[in-house]
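Minutes, structural biology subgroup

Action item carried over from last meeting: produce the structure token record for Replication factor-A protein 1 (Methanosarcina barkeri 3). EB confirmed the sequence was re-checked against the source entry. Recorded below for completeness.
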Amino acid sequence: MDDKIAPHLEELTRALGDLEKTGIRAEFEKLIAFRVPPDVAKESILRKFGGKRKTLKVKDLSANIKNFELTGRILDLGEKSIRQQAGTQEKPSRLYTGVLADETGSVLFSSWRELPGSIGDVINIKNAYVRIWQNRIRLSIGEQSPVSKISGSSLPPLSELSASQKKKLIDIGAADFSVDTIACVLKLSYREILVKGRKSRVISGVLADETGRLPFTAWIELPGIDIGSIIRIEGAQVRIFRGMPSINILSSTKVSSIGSDETGKLSFTFESAAKDPVPLKIQEINSRDSMFDVSIAGNLVSVRPGSGIVSRCPECSRVIQKGNCRVHGKVEGIWDMRIKAVMDDGTGSVSVMFPRELAEIIYGKTLEEAEQLMFSDVSKDAVYEDLRRFLTGRYLAVRGNSSRSEFGISFVAENAWVPEEDLAVRVVELLRRLEPDEEDGQDKSPQVSGGGIELA
Ligand SMILES: [Zn+2]
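Output recorded by EB:
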């Protein structure tokens, strides 16, 4: 009997961690006691406790995901001892850190348990999770993450995986460790900062190719490189700033200008890359973790609560309630206005945030005018109600950045306008969606019914 169930228990332990602690073993034994065949019991337990478990590739990793399985080759591995406070006692423990890669990318990891492999080996991790640490995505292997060594894996060899990956800008994501790319410098600015008490110059700007744009920061001088230069970057690091990947050029990164013989073979020129971005479908925005400097257009189908006038802490700009900042306590708040609205273009919807300058433009009232409305009305939601009446259903185009947080994708607008040129096309499209035809009309009309669309 035990011989029959032992392999299943082993498999469950590998998949779900400590069976005793989680009560899974008791559950399994109950099924066996009810004469459920061991393999059926195992499957049922896996479905019940590992139902949300998924197998991911490195490129799929993004902030705050957990309980997934991943297989990768160890590119780098080190250990350090850390003193952890356990109650009143300090207990020393070991943290193993390194880089793990598959054919889609490489990622930093940290593990509280010793790994069953070393540099070059392929390991499989279950119940892994992701943390953001020092602006980088980090794969975390915890006490409850079973790790096993895989022999005969079909993953590319160490030499191939440890080379930087050549990527177009649109494919560079949070999980990339080191990348090579060819791009054109669209924007460039210098600022002085203090690094370890010494003044040093940092260059920041925007890169573009035919697929998209990304911000960059260079911690080294870039002689001969200016706006319009097309450059090859090798071994740049990817960092995450406000949910957005950013290319970091360090002293270990190689940057060179591309000669005119080679620029002819590229799919972009400075002129094509510098053009204003063409509006994307919201569906595409929602399919990616983040997009930098893109535009979308659609109807504002609802204005979210929290829009209108808010009071901010003068120290940290957090929104405060009743003159109290979560961090700084009692403060003299500063009035600000913002609008959060849901934009829908028929392919999907996304939450768009309009900061004060844009809120004033699309609302047609300044902060001061909105304040007067707030103080002249008995309802404390006067501005929010007015915003809803005025904005719901309006058609707008916005340009800015989108990024994923635990609440889903949000878009921060940096520019907004009413696209006049395609008004006629849009009216036809709207009529088509409002008038259900025989085949597929029924399920489409609710998309626009909530907003009370008006063409202003
Ligand atoms: Zn504060």
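Discussion: Residues 55-161 form a domain with the OB fold (Dihydrolipoamide Acetyltransferase, E2P) fold (CATH 2.40.50.140).
Next step: EB to file the record with the rest of the batch.
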